[in-house]
Write a structure and sequence with these properties.
The complex is a heterodimer. Chain A has two domains: 2-57; 85-276, Orthogonal Bundle (MetI-like fold), CATH 1.10.3720.10. In chain A, 76% of the residues lie in helices and 0% in strands. Chain A contains eleven helices and no strands. Chain B is an alpha/beta fold. Chain B is 34% helix and 21% strand. Chain B contains eight helices and eleven strands. In chain B, helix 2 crosses helix 3, helix 2 (97-108) runs parallel beside helix 4 and helix 3 (114-127) crosses helix 4 (143-156). The longest helix of chain B has 20 residues, at 245-264. Chain B is globular and about 60 Å long. The chains are: A mainly alpha, B alpha/beta.
Chain lengths: 280, 291
């Protein structure tokens, strides 16, 4: 029954894709009859009728061709405004990973302290609550002014947006470690460091990893916007550059790649979460 | 003066009430003691503070007043000298059975090699009959098996005293019986000193040499200490044929049903001295006359 359910699900998925592609194709078809009417005949003559479509939207076929040609040469580099998708994604991933790792280095130890100490929780909670809802991009001017480097500023923006979910989840996970497990460690005269590493950390690990997964998701959302702002390299800049080029099929290709990479990142953290999860 | 192995002196516990208006004294003036190798059960209704007394003995909780001495030393904080079996087994679900026991063993003996720790753990895991499940995770085990791992973990550190907080409370009657039998065997083999909380009168008669009866709280007292007249070795299937069995059983049930409440209302014998609670040894009437 289980196999047949996933089979039926894949059939439905495939149908949805076909319907979507079909609708897209229909919506972007050039008007039939060949007699393209231009508001301005002079302009029409200049353009040469046949090359013009009904809308600026590329058809699925054109986008498919773009995807194939882009993926065939992902790492070409023809100067600042024309780099392969692989290079752009690598820049974005490098920024996301360094900002994320820096955030983890700060958030997890700090979350531990907050989770262990009700005093620190109460003292830091107002700051966390006010910092958490700030759009990370709002930090960008301050970052640019103080750091004076566009690439480092976007890493800072990733840092500031990844830190909160990790810190809050770590604190929550640490605070809700079962009292019984801590009492076991106490009756065995286990020192504080060993208790933290061998009892609290494994007990809180699933919650901490959930926080890291949320942070990574947010970081990947934010990097696109950040790179649109600061420019230069990265997938966000690529999208904005192709928009300026009016090359919509490259924009659609980039959107697709952002989704694929985001999904892959999430799957990595899903696998890590599975590794540290336990069943009671 | 000869000091008992474990001595509890003038223990008192006050819980601040949530409103702050009136603090609750759960128990006060608790005095008792027992010797090495004795199995002591404490019986009383919920709210009399027996779990608090056990936690104070374990060093996990602090009494408002009074002292506990074990082996001539004051009990201050938790120690490897006192092993605890928790009611909810308290196994760490991310560790296998043997890793759970090894966590305790390597805490007790820091300098042991991995092989030494493993061998020692297996000895105690086999003692509770779980040799075949050593590499399983707790969630793969039944409730009874989990509690046996908890017992193995507590025994494995070879503590001077074992503290058990209603270890079989959550188990079904059948499993409970099997583990009780195992516990009788292990205690006979190791001469372990045990202090255990129970609600089950039959369990107390089977396991305990001394049964401490607590009156209802608040202001709970030790009403009396019952010496078990049934000789060792006690076997679960046979103890109810012992001539004294029903004398003890009725004495304990009477206490739980009515006397624990009356004592809480102030009906104490005139010569009641909290420093020396009365020691009772209920025996069958017929045999008393014959003697």
């Amino acid at each position: 029954m289980k196999a047949s359910l996933s089979l039926r699900a894949s059939i439905v998925s495939a149908l949805i894709l076909i319907v979507f592609l079909g609708a897209w194709q229909l919506a972007t078809l050039p008007p039939s009859g060949g007699g393209t009417v231009y508001a301005d005949p002079e302009y029409a003559a200049m353009m040469g009728g046949a090359a013009v479509q009904a809308s600026g939207m590329p058809t699925p076929g054109v986008v498919g061709q773009t995807i194939l040609s882009q993926l065939a040469h992902p790492f070409y580099d023809n100067g600042p405004n024309d780099k392969g998708i692989g290079i752009q994604l690598a820049w974005s991933l490098a920024r996301v990973l360094s900002g994320f790792l820096l955030a983890a280095l700060v958030a997890i130890p700090l979350g531990f302290v907050i989770g262990m100490s009700p005093l620190m929780f109460k003292a830091l909670n107002p700051y966390i609550q006010i910092m958490k809802p700030i759009s990370p991009l709002a930090w960008m001017p301050l970052a640019l002014y103080t750091i004076k480097d566009a690439s480092l500023s976007s890493i800072f923006v990733i840092f500031i947006c990844s830190i909160w979910p990790m810190m809050i989840n770590t604190a929550h996970g640490v605070a809700s470690v079962k009292k019984d497990w801590l009492n076991v460690a106490r009756t065995l005269e286990v020192n504080a460091f060993r208790t933290a590493m061998q009892v609290v950390l494994p007990a809180a690990a699933p919650t901490i990893l959930t926080g890291m997964r949320i942070s990574m998701g947010i970081a990947w959302l934010v990097i696109v916007a950040a790179e649109m702002l600061v420019g230069g390299t990265g997938i966000g800049y690529f999208v904005w550059n192709e928009w300026n080029n009016l090359n919509l099929s490259n924009v659609i290709f980039a959107i697709f790649m952002i989704g694929a990479v985001g999904m892959a990142l999430d799957m990595v953290f899903g696998a890590l979460a599975k590794l540290v999860s336990y069943q009671e | 003066m000869n000091q008992p192995f474990l001595k509890v002196e003038g223990l008192k516990k006050v819980f601040p009430s949530p409103g702050g208006a009136q603090d609750v004294t759960v128990f006060e003036n608790i005095h008792f003691g027992f010797e090495k190798g004795e199995f002591v059960c404490i019986i009383g209704h919920s709210g009399c503070g027996k779990s608090t007394i056990l936690n104070v003995l374990a060093g996990l909780d602090e009494a408002t007043d009074g002292n506990v001495f074990m082996d001539g030393r004051e009990v201050k904080g938790p120690s490897l000298d006192r092993g605890v079996v928790f009611q909810s087994h308290a196994l760490m679900p991310w560790l296998t059975v043997i890793e759970n026991v090894a966590f305790a063993v390597s805490s007790r003996w820091h300098d042991w090699s991995k092989a030494q720790v493993r061998e020692h753990c297996m000895k105690y895991i086999e003692l509770v009959g779980l040799g075949h499940a050593a590499d399983k995770k707790p969630h793969q085990l039944s409730g009874g098996m989990k509690q046996r791992v908890g017992i193995a973990r507590a025994f494995a550190i070879e503590p001077k005293m074992l503290l058990m907080d209603e270890p079989f409370g959550a188990l079904d009657a059948l499993t409970r019986g099997v583990i009780q039998d195992e516990l009788v065997k292990i205690c006979a083999a190791t001469h372990q000193t045990v202090f255990m909380i129970t609600h089950d009168v039959d369990e107390a008669i089977l396991l305990a040499d001394k049964i401490v009866l607590m009156s209802n709280g608040p202001y709970a007292k030790i009403a009396e200490i019952v010496e078990n007249p049934l000789p060792k070795p006690r076997v679960r299937q046979e103890i109810h044929h012992d001539p004294h069995f029903y004398a003890v059983r009725n004495h304990l049930v009477d206490f739980l049903v009515s006397r624990s409440k009356l004592i809480a209302q102030g009906e104490l014998p005139d010569d009641y001295d909290p420093l020396h609670p009365p020691v009772v040894r209920p025996v069958a009437e017929a045999l008393k006359l014959a003697a």
